[in-house]
Write a structure and sequence with these properties.
Elements (H helix, E strand, L loop, with lengths): L2 E7 L3 E9 L1 H5 L10 E9 L9 E5 L8 H15 L2 E5 L20 H24 L5 E6 L1 H11 L7 E4 L6 H5 L9 H10 L1 H10 L4 H14 L27 H8 L8 H9 L2 H9 L3 H33 L1
Helix pairs in contact: 3-4, 6-7
């Protein structure tokens, strides 16, 4: 239930202050700090409507936008003057009156607080939209600046009816801001990594959320081959030095020696050749890769399995980096 605490008459508008209990506190108890459970809003309506319609725009706060003054002064009042459109300003969880006592300004204490904020705003926006519809207001829309625009996008995408959306200075994802942008240093990535490895529930939950879309990846490979230039078929123009192939062993192996090594079977190596290989140990790597016996085949198979295992570990690390992007 929504409660109106105060109604204030202004020269150009009427300002209503209200509150309600966030639905997220009902669906996921104890996930929100006690200060954030009560959602507070301010409703700025014109004194007289100039048509049969009563348009309302819900404004969500951007980063660092505490309380209502900024949105009321810079957005709501000009909209009443120019378009006779009402504005409903919802205060973000963790901001203004909803800020936890031990939180410093806009700095959220935990990464999870950002997800809680988003989930709460989606449900709270839906509550306000239902209330506005019930009270006969419309058409309805949503907007926000920066983080407010992103949160408004989340809220509108979860509303079952067509709804105008104007996200300002926003984008479809906020991942770059936290991974490579201005807030990348504000996240304690080492602590997150430690929690991920020490508490298996994180890994179990995250891995279930990850999906490998092999069809699209395969199609991308086909498209690449189909559209690649014909010069790719000829590798003679490529300058591949030994360092690229990890064969840079300091002292260069003479071509005659390598040809001699490759032309003979390992079981029939002369003692002089074996002496040479013992003296120059790094060259053994080259020979061991070429010659194969039953034992070496088994070792090679083990190496393949080890490489596959390392590749899986690498893919998991890639997934972790991707989840950082999601956060």
């Amino acid at each position: 239930f929504l409660h109106i605490n105060k109604v204030e008459e202004q020269s150009d508008c009427k300002i209503l202050d209200g509150h309600f209990i966030s639905p997220l506190a009902h669906y996921v108890p104890d996930i929100m700090p006690s200060e954030s459970i009560t959602a507070r809003f301010q409703f700025i309506v014109p004194k007289r409507w100039n048509s049969k319609y009563k348009p309302v725009c819900i404004h969500l706060a951007g980063t660092g936008d505490h309380y209502f003054w900024r949105r009321r002064t810079l957005m709501a009042r000009p909209m009443i003057k120019e378009a006779c459109m009402a504005s409903l300003l919802l205060e973000n969880p963790y901001y203004g009156y909803r800020k936890p006592k031990d939180q410093l300004r806009s700095c959220l204490k935990n990464v999870s607080d950002l997800f809680v904020m988003g989930g709460a705003l989606v449900l709270e926006s839906a509550t306000l939209l239902h209330w506005l519809e019930k009270e006969g207001y419309g058409p309805l829309g949503m907007t926000g600046i920066s983080m407010g625009g992103h949160m408004a996008s989340l809220a509108v995408s979860n509303w079952p009816k067509p709804l105008p959306l104007v996200p300002c200075l926003s984008w479809s994802t906020a991942s770059g801001v936290f991974t490579t942008g201005v807030l990348s240093k504000a996240v304690n990535w080492r602590e997150l990594e430690k929690q991920y490895y020490t508490q298996s529930v994180y890994e179990e939950e995250i891995i279930q959320m990850l999906e490998y879309c092999g069809t699209d990846s395969f199609k991308m490979g086909q498209d690449f081959v189909k559209n690649s230039p014909s010069s790719v078929d000829n590798l003679s123009c490529l300058d591949l030095n030994s360092g690229i192939l990890h064969l840079d062993i300091g002292n260069k192996v003479r071509s005659s020696e390598v040809g001699h090594c490759l032309s003979r079977n390992r079981n029939n190596l002369s003692s002089s050749t074996e002496e040479l290989l013992v003296q120059d140990a790094p060259k053994m790597q080259c020979v061991n890769q070429i010659f194969s016996t039953s034992t070496s085949n088994a070792n090679f198979s083990n190496e393949q399995n080890h490489l596959i295992s390392r590749k899986n570990d690498s893919l998991q690390r890639e997934s972790l980096r991707f989840m950082k992007g999601v956060m």
